[in-house]
Amino acid sequence: MAKIHPTAIISPDVFIDPDESTEIGPYTIIEGNVTIHKGCRIGPYVHIQGYTEIGAGCRILTGAIIGSIPQDLKYKGGKTYLKIGERNTIREFVTINTGTSEGESTIIGNNNLIMAYVHIAHNCVIGNSVIIANGGTLAGHVVIDDFAIIGGLVGIHQFCRVGRYSIIGGCSKITKDIVPFVIADGHPAVPHGVNKIGLKRKGIPPEKIAHIEEIYKILFRSGLNVSEAVVELEKMERTEEVVCMVDFIKNSSRGIAR
């Protein structure tokens, strides 16, 4: 049987996987249509609510509030969802909201580290193996792609996107999309070069890193505007990195930071 502390309050509508690896800590409240899968460890004083699903092997620490209604004046009630994948660590006092409109979701992938006091607002989409450091604040509809790192106290404007393998310096303000593979910092944040150390740590071979640097130079150091730079990138061999960058730029709703 799952290990549920006697002081925890569990609504009858909640499903908790009965495996003995599943733990619910003292004074935690779980209510609504919540599903908690095998091997989750929920700490003390956590509040999980709404239409929330938490994948296997997640760890949620003291005081987190998961699946609360969105801080959005457009919210009119109804079924909105939070879907959390597997093996995520959600630290102390994190707040994560559901989607805003009927049927919409906030989505978090797998293997993410979400540090203390992070806020993830309605309709955000977090990929896999993302790190969001202490106090990071994501407004509604923000997208964070795989392997991105968000520094402490970073504020991200609604509808912004951070590309994969990028790293954002602490206390930055993001008002436009941050392209993949870069280091970004500032008020507002802009790219300051390729995230070479991060790419190396993730096992990206040197020749691919050099190729990414070529892409970066065309986009940010050639004197071309964004449209002209995309034309030049499309003349290159259609490597995974080129396709990733071109698709990111073409799909940017807020424009890219330069």
Question: What are its keywords?
Answer:
single chain, UDP N-Acetylglucosamine Acyltransferase, domain 1, eleven-stranded mixed beta sheet, 4 helices
Strand content: 25-35%
CATH topology of the largest domain: UDP N-Acetylglucosamine Acyltransferase, domain 1
Report the CATH superfamily of the largest domain.
Hexapeptide repeat proteins
CA-based shape = elongated
Report how far apart the termini are. 54 Å
How much is the radius of gyration in Å? 20 Å
Oligomer classification: single chain
Number of strands: 28
What does this structure look like?
- This protein is an alpha/beta fold and 258 residues long.
- It folds into 2 domains: 3-141, Hexapeptide repeat proteins (UDP N-Acetylglucosamine Acyltransferase, domain 1, 3 Solenoid); 200-250, no CATH class.
- Helices cover 16% and strands 28% of the residues.
- It has helices at 196-201, 206-220, 226-235, 240-250; strands spanning 3-4, 9-10, 15-16, 23-24, 29-30, 35-36, 41-42, 47-48, 51-54, 59-60, 65-68, 81-84, 89-90, 95-97, 105-108, 113-114, 119-120, 125-126, 131-132, 137-138, 143-144, 149-150, 155-156, 161-162, 167-168, 173-174, 182-186, 189-194.
- An 11-stranded mixed beta sheet has the order 1-4-7-10-13-16-19-22-25-27-28.
- Strand 27 (182-186) and strand 28 form a beta hairpin.
- The model has no long low-confidence stretch (mean pLDDT 98).
